[in-house]
Write a structure and sequence with these properties.
By secondary structure, the protein is an alpha+beta fold. 62% of the residues lie in helices and 9% in strands. A hairpin with a 2-residue loop joins strand 8 and strand 9. Helix 6 packs across helix 7 (161-195) and helix 21 (639-666) packs antiparallel against helix 22 (674-706).
């Protein structure tokens, strides 16, 4: 079938390119405005208790909301007549801004101590915003500039979850443009170094452009049906650029090898599409199935990465298998134009016997001492993985932005200069509570360790004792039952381990008879989100592992090879996670990645996202390497020589592909958002470790020790693979048989001996 495809691509190459050009234009049009349809947030579980508490507070207690907190300061104390007048006027103006449900401030709430800094220099305005998480973030983006225009000499800073989302979203969009601007020239330079020619280096960028535009159009279409996270744009760009280059590199390398072996352009396209194209398609399927695992999580942040990632993977594979061969059919031998390194590669043995290659000799050295090399690699990966057991999960907050960011500075002022009420308030919503049941429940909550005060109807309680009069009014839902809000003030900051522990203790307090209790707040959201990730992770791992084992069996016919790939990938990913904990959670060597702020936690969504994406990329290189090893083994039956041959013909390409992908991903280390920095650096490290220690050292060591057992399968599975599996033909592993015969005929007519075919990559 693939031979017929290559024939059609050659005969209809111009038509294919015209259709591709039209598809690119339509994709560009279809992706217009996608950045305006993507939404903020998506890190919390919408079905969690904390999410329910947030909805109930917004519905019944708008005055209790603190989605946005404004910090006002001037030249005098907040208690002065001037500040009272200005603060009151600004509070009333903020209340009239579209999207603001209610505004409360130090000057309009009876000079509540919680809304005043300890030194009296700063007063707070708390705003309750309408709409969902995305609506609140967009409102916050409008409020701060508007308020500053009417500040009349006051200094205004903004904090709160809506402001964090707004600034992170704006910084993400800025960093995406910066990363694209940096990645494009770096990628072009690396492609020139890999291929040596401007024509060959440009072709992968064409495929990358196609895949990114197609994925943007898909995201834009999906945004009308499901919420798509604004952060998915970053993954679409980086993953699309990396995979398109990855796949194009293998197709281009095979095509050039066939040409150098003496094939015509038409003859070269056959084995290029049949072997490199088939391997690319199979690898893309593996990556796409790894990303499918993200769909089991309730957070639409992770699900958005699945939508964008699957679209970009399939687009990159289609471009590399269908569009790139048509381009090569048009370009032909001109693919080597302006190849300044052609002679250098020729002297290095590009067309010589494989045993002259550096990778061949290195593989033989590894297979002569598999325990020494393999044991050393395992030890190094184990050292890198050692910090991983200390991982502590959380969610990003203001400290995910640089210390110079406005919301980071504002929130730090709340931490440093205000009482615990400013950052340690936990809303507890009681549904279906009967009259008289709120008071004993509030007293029970006040007895929980780390609780300073509980405010409810009809009063406030400290350690079980009533201390003052009526608190916020409950929302009446009938004569006999109602929804009540109980506000818990503690000394534990919400974005801390102590805050999370407090939520757990509050939830252990028995609810009033017949009532339903929902504990909300930032700490509850962190606890619920990490719990949701933990619940769904086994299913995600099962999907990734199951799909990989099945696909690798179909590809190799071996039982051991899929298990080996799973073990080695797990080892390299553990090393990646260990490094992430060491640098980003604990703050060691953070200057290497731009000195991100470390909070003692890692965002709970990033490790699982890294696992799914990195596992798919690792299987990419596994498939490319095993395809060439198995091809040689079927021809010779020599396990050790087949490993050396496979590494010789893929080692340079896998290394080049890994460097290119890692460079594209590592560019996101320039981001000011720690979450994006963590994702980019983590994926780049995973790719580098996999392409070096795993593919170059551990795979040859393992396959040498396993010997002929590498390709063993029980008889029933062998018969199954014979019927449904994918198989390499056992012909000459370089130039295709038809192309080799054609070349021999031409050489005979010219009176020149044909010479041996050269294996392609």
């Amino acid at each position: 079938m693939l031979d017929r495809v290559s024939a059609v691509l050659y005969r209809r190459r111009v038509a294919v390119l015209w259709v591709s050009a039209v598809a690119v234009v339509l994709a560009w049009i279809g992706g217009l405005g996608v950045e305006h349809r993507l939404v903020h947030g998506g890190f919390s579980d919408p079905g969690a208790q904390s999410a329910r508490a947030e909805r109930l507070v917004a519905e019944h207690f708008p005055a209790a909301g603190d989605d946005l907190v404004l910090l006002l300061s001037g030249t005098t104390s907040v208690d002065s007549a001037e500040m009272t007048s200005l603060g009151t006027a600004l509070t009333r103006h903020a209340a009239r801004i579209r999207g603001v449900r209610q505004a409360t401030s130090y000057w309009t709430a009876g000079r509540a101590p919680a809304l005043r800094s300890r030194d009296g220099a700063i007063g707070l305005v708390t705003l309750s915003l309408s709409g969902d998480e995305d609506d609140r973030a967009k409102t916050a983006g409008r409020v701060l500039p508007d308020v500053r225009r009417h500040a009349q000499g006051l200094t205004v800073l903004a904090a709160g979850p809506a402001q964090v989302q707004s600034e992170v979203g704006a910084r993400t969009a800025h960093d995406l443009l910066l990363a694209e601007a940096i990645a494009a020239p770096i990628t072009l330079v690396l492609l020139l170094l890999v291929f040596g020619g401007a024509v060959a280096a440009t072709l992968p960028l064409v495929i990358a452009l196609l895949s990114v535009l197609m994925s943007r159009a898909v995201l834009n279409a999906l945004a009308g049906a499901v919420p798509i996270s604004v952060y998915s744009m970053n993954s679409t760009t980086s993953l699309g650029l990396g995979l398109a280059i990855d796949y194009s590199l293998f197709v281009l390398a095979r095509f050039r090898e066939e040409l150098r072996a003496g094939a015509t352009v038409r003859e070269a396209l056959g084995p290029t599409v049949r072997r490199a194209g088939r391997t690319v398609a199979f690898s893309a399927l593996t990556v796409a199935l790894s990303l499918v695992a993200l769909l089991v999580f309730p957070q639409f942040f992770l699900r958005s990465f699945a939508y964008g990632g699957i679209a970009v993977v399939l687009s990159a594979a289609a471009g590399a298998v269908l569009v790139l061969p048509a381009l090569l059919a048009v370009v032909g031998h001109r693919v080597d134009r302006y190849d300044v390194f052609a002679r250098l590669r020729g002297r290095a043995g590009a067309t010589g016997p494989p045993e002259n290659g550096r990778w061949y000799r290195f593989a033989l050295a590894v297979t002569r001492h598999p325990l020494l090399y393999g044991g050393g690699a395992v030890l190094l990966l184990a050292v890198l993985a050692s910090p991983f057991p200390r991982v502590s999960a959380g969610l990003f907050d203001d400290r995910s932005l640089p210390a110079s960011a406005q919301v980071h500075r504002a929130t730090q002022l709340l931490r440093d200069r205000f009482d615990a009420d400013a950052l340690g308030t936990v809303p507890v919503v009681v549904e279906g509570v009967r009259p008289g049941a709120v008071e004993p429940y509030a007293r029970a909550l006040s007895a929980v360790p780390d609780v300073r005060r509980v405010t409810a109807v009809p009063g406030s309680y400290v350690a079980g004792h009533r201390v003052r009069g009526p608190g916020p009014t409950a929302s009446a839902d009938g004569d006999s039952t109602r929804v009540a809000l109980v506000t818990v003030v503690s000394g534990a900051e919400q974005d801390s381990a102590a805050g999370t522990r407090l939520v757990g203790r509050l939830r252990e307090v028995a609810a009033p008879a017949g009532a339903t209790v929902s504990v909300g707040g930032r700490a509850a959201e962190v606890q619920d989100s990490t719990a949701a990730v933990a619940r769904a992770t086994p299913a995600a791992i099962g999907i990734v592992v199951g799909a990989s084992l099945l696909l690798l069996f179909l590809f190799t016919g071996s039982v051991l090879m899929p298990v080996k790939a799973l073990v080695l990938n797990t080892l390299s990913l553990s090393a990646t996670f260990g490094a992430m904990v060491y640098v980003f959670q604990e703050g060691h060597l953070s200057f290497l990645v731009g000195s991100p702020a470390h909070t003692g936690t890692l965002d709970a969504t990033i490790p699982i996202l890294t696992f799914c994406v990195a596992f798919g990329l690792s299987m990419d290189y596994e498939v490319f390497l095993l395809a060439r090893i198995r091809e040689r083994y079927l021809l010779t039956g020599d396990n050790t020589e087949s490993v050396a041959f496979g590494l010789q013909h893929t080692g340079r390409i896998i290394t080049a592909a890994a460097v290119l992908v890692a460079a594209v991903l590592f560019v996101f280390s320039v981001s000011g958002v720690t979450m994006l920095k963590l994702l980019g650096v983590g994926l780049a490290l995973a790719v580098v470790l996999d392409a070096t220690l795993v593919r170059a050292v551990l795979v040859p060591s393992f396959m040498r020790l396993a010997g002929r057992a590498n390709w063993w399968a029980p008889a029933p599975l062998r018969r199954l693979h014979d019927r449904v599996g994918l198989r390499e033909d056992t012909g000459a592993p370089g130039l295709s048989r038809a192309a080799g015969a054609a070349r021999a005929a031409r050489a005979a007519r010219a009176g020149v001996p044909p010479g041996p075919p050269t294996p392609g990559p």
